[in-house]
Amino acid sequence: MVDINLSQPPFNLLDEKARQRVRDGVDLAYFNESEVILDAGQRGEHVFLIHKGEVAELDLNASEGEQRIGHYTADDLFGAISILNGTSRYRFQAEQESLCYLLPRWLFEDICSAYPAFDDYFRQHLAEKARHVLQRRAEGGMSMARFMLARVAECMREPVVIEGRTTIAEAVTHLRECHADSLLVSHAGRCGMVTKTDLLDALVQQGLPQTAEVGGIAHFTLITSHADDYLFTALVSMTRHEVARVVVMEGAQAVGVVELTDVLGYFSSRAHVVSLQIEQAEDIDGLACASADLPQLIQALMAQGVKLRFAMELMAALNGRIMHKAFRFLMPETQREQSCLLVMGSEGRGEQILKTDQDNALILADGSDWPGIEAAMGSLTDTLGRLGYPPCPGNIMVSNPQWVASESAWRGKIARWASSRDPDALMNLAIMLDAHAIAGNASLLEGLREHLFARGSHDELLLSYFARGVLRYSTPLTLFGTLKRPEHGIDIKKGGLFPIVHGVRTLALERRIAATSTFARLEALVDDGRLDRPFADDLGEAMALFSELRLRQQLENLEGNDTSQEPNRVVVQRLSGFERDLLREALHTVKEFKQRLSQRFHLEY
Known about the structure:
By secondary structure, the chain is of the alpha+beta class. It has 25 helices and 20 strands. Strands 1-8-3-6 form a four-stranded antiparallel sheet. The chain is globular, with a radius of gyration of 28 Å.
């Protein structure tokens, strides 16, 4: 038996019996520097797992200087695809003296047949590989991770539907008999909802008789979900919209209801504890206490294998609620109704995990009057700083009068930015495209966004200038397609995240897509036919990978374990072989995306 590391994917998909078969069945082979280990067109007879040394993957059909497309080091494996396909497409050549474990073809095929998950590993694309890692984490006994993969259908109740002409007394009887807290109301061709609280208020506060019809007191603006949505998204919706239930729809038909109590019965999380702290806060001090718990919440979520996109959505909802309440505490109701507070940048896209700098603005309704607005905005900036959101180094904040303006003034700013097309103007357009309303009158932002789309979506010259930002930073790959490995690490934000975020943002402007999240924009671009599904999935998973690697470094800095390392830099040498493989594939996806954008918007000119 040999001493071989089988703790890394894909061998961790096997049980101990299968791993023992691998140990008993492998041989150890030595290869000289420059020796061809597996040649293009050669029948695959072994899977190679590197013990020591380095191996290059070469495409012999590529032009000279571009043949080297892969690089493998200790614990990396290669040769499996040549067995599955019959022959090898590429040449694998030792770049230095190397020792490799050789897993025979027959044993590899036998294990693939007995263990479908192991077999699937070698047939998956980037997006599927990343999802598989998450699912494996969830199977490790982590209740939070299992919750993140649960669907709404697993937790929804059968809907109880009554007609709008049903009386309040009859509705109360229905609630009692069904042991429910709410009823769906079918009235005048619409679907609404009435709750126990609504019925009580109607009788006590409004003084309505028991014979009054529920159609007159039901709410017809519903927060909805779908049966195949993740259950966690329902929790995010409840947090964001301050409701205790969502209606599950199938087309125009209501097929179920998910109550907050149902979600908590399925899983009780610290996320809800923080959410309750925020909702119960009666002043800024209360908000500050809730806000202080957010970093610990993120650490707990990530430690338990939560999918990064879910964590982003939850944090965006919680941060939004904190800022919303701060705005409500500080600003008079009249002014709140005639203004809209925006968050922008990563916060606007809902893609920030740890607290970021303040990046906000205010829209005022035309004709509104707000005496002392500069002092009020200064107070808001100071308060947000107290809540853990530091000032923006670029001064893009409501305390800066340049970022507080009326609807008409904002339309004028957008027109000037679009016409000038200088770097600062293009940055401001990007910031405004990502804006998300968190307090006040959200319709003010909707009107402004439509104006931005009308001005920019068909302006090919503006789109070309705008898209050129994706080429601002180089992709951290060598000329041979391998990962760059500087000692100080690669900047994952500039080299990986930014090209995806800005490229998708450009396409969203072109196609007039109102969503601000990069993930939601990708979905909309697929629905629009602008991106094919497999490539959009790979872009989304690449972005999630970059974000997770970046977050891992940020959390280490937060814990004081690695304060010397910049939060956006990832040291490739510290990654496992599997992580390096995923990172290399993800960066190649970024490179392809840049090429597609260059062709579409003629960036080469």
